[in-house]
Give the backbone structure.
Amino acid sequence: MAQDNATQVVRSSSGAEGAARVVMEARSLKKVYGRGQQSLAVLSDANLSLRHGEMVAIVAPSGAGKSTLLHLLAALDTPTSGTVYFADKAIETNDDDAALAEFRNRAVGFLWQRHQLLPDFTAAENVAMPLLLRGENFTSALGTARKWLAEVGLEDRADHRAGELSGGEQQRVAIARALVTGPTVLLADEPTGDLDEQNAWAVFELLQRLHRTHGLTSLIATHNLRLAARCDRVLGLEHGVLQTREARASASMAPGGEAS
Ligand code: ADP
């Protein structure tokens, strides 16, 4: 295993034809929760470069720090030390609130394992929410939301309350909500973790299609090694450090493709 060295690859080949630009980068990320004897070091030296158009999987056991890493990349939390860059600009979580809200709303789409939809609002209202938060008018936001629901195959469920939809449908609504603002990067935290095998594949294939058709750069934390093996690269997270992992070997390690 080698530490993720995509940064060096891109930099050393910066003059080379076809080298995709780095969209998001993490340098020496460290995250320690708590203080003193109660402190817990989750990330010790996490380095990552996401190149434009890549779909990258992070596979690691529960508790390894996948969510922590994704939250830091999305500026939902602050690293103890180290820096996240988006399009060469350092994201400072002490930036003013407006700049951070702009980053969260436009640069990154976040997909949670448990969809986090508002059950009493309709599917269309849930998808429209990020647009309303950035000040779009209701009619226009709802129109865009309906288009996104059509993209995820749920146009006929647009006016159903989110709480009435099945698990797989709710996750598709959540995908539409994550992408409705047109982000550059999609960060997905175990997006199929709560779904049965059939729905997990359907959701993953939808993510792959949207990743391609919308020119996204995607980072997906997953337990499912067979899904991970379908990504461009697979990273492991061990002792707080990201490492390149051999996708085929990973997939054959556990029957059924599930990590322990
Ligand atoms: P994963 O996503 O790989 O399951 P997490 O990033 O959720 O891992 O958690 C990594 C470790 O950090 C776990 O031991 C978890 O209990 C701990 N942890 C996560 N969030 C907090 C927090 N806010 N405060 C203290 N400990 C936390």
Summary: The chain has nine helices and ten strands. Residues 1-17, 249-260 have pLDDT under 50 and may be disordered. The two ends are 19 Å apart (CA to CA). The beta strands are 22-33, 40-51, 55-59, 81-86, 89-91, 108-111, 185-189, 217-222, 233-238, 241-245.
